[in-house]
Every structure is written in C-alpha cells, then in structure tokens.
Please model this.
Amino acid sequence: MNIRVMTEENEFKLLRPCASFCRNSKGRLHSEEECDIRTCYQRDRDRIIHSKAFRRLMYKTQAFIFPEGDHFRTRLTHTLEVSQIARTIARALRLNEDLTEAIALGHDLGHTPFGHMGERDLDRVVPGGFHHNRQSVRIVEKLEKDGRGLNLTREVVDGILNHRGSGNPATLEGKIVQISDKIAYINHDIDDSLRRGALTEESLPKDCTDLLGHTVRKRIDFLIRDIIKNSIDTPDIIMSPDVKEALYKLRKYMFANVYKNMSVVSDKISYETYLSDIYYYYYKNFSEIPLEYQQHYTPGEKKETIICDYISGMTDRFAIKLHDDLKL
Model:
C-alpha cells in the first residue's frame, strides 16, 4: 500500500482547484525517488524541522534581546505561531496545508541575531544589502547538510523567498504565509511589549484597535476570519481594505515605537553595531572564518557573502560571546 499515492488522490477530492497539489509540483532542483509514505511537501516540512538552522531559531531574538522572564517570543516561537495561523487559514480555504506549513517553518531560517535591529545593522554595511528571505533560501539550497542543501520543492523555496511584503508568491499557500507572518509578529510583539511594559493597550492607535479588537487574541481571530471570509470564493488571498489598512498602521506604529527604539529593545547594552563590528573584523581577517563556511568560497562567490553566511547563522549568545572574545 502506497500511502503517499492515497494522500495525493485525496487532495484532488478535498482541496479546491486553485490549491497546490503535490502531483503538480514543479519538483526539486535535484530529482529524487518519491517516498511511499510522505508527499513532497511533507518531506520538505520534515527536512526543515530537522535542520540545524531551524534549531538555532530558539536562541535568536524576535523583538526583545534577553528579556527578563520566560514567556517572551523567540524567533522559533514566532515561526511556530506563523505556522499555526497559516495552517488555520489554509485548512479553512481548503488549500494545501502541508505546503503552507513547510513555507511557514522555513521562512525565517536566514534571520540574523538580534531581530530587526541585527538585520538593519548587517544591511547597512553589506554591499547590496542583506535580506533574510534571500539568506533563508541560501541556507536551504546550499548551506545545510555540509553544502548539499535540503533540496526542497520549488514551491516551498518560492514561498520562503517571497514571504516579505514586497514579494509575490507563486502559490496561494505562499500568500497565506506572507500575510500570516505579519499577523503573527505585529500582534505577538504587541503582546510582548505589553508584558515588558514598553507599551500599553491604550497607547495603540485607537482607530486600529476599535476595528480589529482590544486584545491580542481578538485581533488575531478577527484578522484570520476577515481573510477567510474575503478569500473563500476567490482564487486569491484577500483582506478587507479597511482591515488591511489598520493592520499596516499597527505595523508602522510598532516599527516606530518598538523595533527602532533601542531603549525598549534592550535595557542592558546596545547591540546595535555588534554584527557590523564582526563583519568588518572578518572582512579584514577572512582566513579566521571557520572552514565549514570557507569551503563555499568558490569562483563566483563573494567574500562578503561568506561572511554573511557565518554571521546570520549565529545565535544571539554566540554573537555576543564572539564580539567579546574578539574585543571589538
């Protein structure tokens, strides 16, 4: 009995015509023999979960660096929350939940230490800028498994690459992850900010909370329901114009009052230039980068790319210790 074949046949019975069906996948860069139990998207999900980059997310900042208390989000818990929201929407819309989950679990693999602040710091000094979505793709295509990569399906790679606001995912499942990412980080970072005392519910834009809800739970539920209601009869992922405007206004508020506010993000020490300090050090002392990263310095690769591979793969605590050890 081939369970994968049965699952693929059930997809055609259960999912909408606009869904991404496993049998219609564009495949992998390197062809592989199919599994007789798991579909291609289920295998991608499992490969991401078992990757080293996924495990490192546990020790990377989401919004606050080394907050006091055990209940603040990390990059890993953010990823799981994106996955939960995205799967809820995909299931309600009868789209491919496995593809949605795989994209969600892999979307932030390339994120730097220190959250938004770390990415801004590295983006400021790297020629051509640094973009965590592109780095996530580099991880799954080249860096994992000692340079062999995870060999994911093209649909999952596309969703990871295009999950940022400027992206245009090729699948509806990718579009679900794109908006679920924003729903998750805006609302959960508000929740952490309230717990931290950096914000109050009353300080949030009143027109936004009057529409979306006055608690984090109510806002997330409202946003999910709005997407489902507006997308269920269309081959697209749609949010009501006024709801979308309110969500993006909250996002703008969070960037101004939390993500770019150093006194809020960390009350211990400013890590604002830690990654750029490390970058400049290794640019001058490239031979000191670990060999597992240097092995990718082949014709066509830039030294800056290899340095970014090393830095973006660091956890917060590793980057802090390295910065101290190098006496930067």
User: Anything to note?
Assistant: The chain has a mean pLDDT of 94. Residues 3-12+38-191+263-325 form a domain with the Hypothetical protein af1432 fold (CATH 1.10.3210.10). The chain is about 60% helix and 0% strand.
